[in-house]
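Write out the 3D structure for:
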Amino acid sequence: MVRSSEKIKERDTDNTEGKAAGTKSYKIHIVQDDESLSVIAREFYGNPALWKHIYKANQHKISDPNDIHAGQELIIPELKK
């Protein structure tokens, strides 16, 4: 299994295409086997209920939030504090 630090890439963004709406920075997460958006939200935000932020940032890639696949690159937006 790949460790969390090995499966993400950090990217700083400005007003470029693909940027998560309203964010200045985000991470890219490579989906692993048996992960769901809520599992990923728990890993990055500490709260699985925040999965909708990940879904919203990736609607151009995900048509059904219950149907993500290993190997997909997902934008993980930085949440405002």
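Residues 1-6, 10-18 have pLDDT under 50 and may be disordered.
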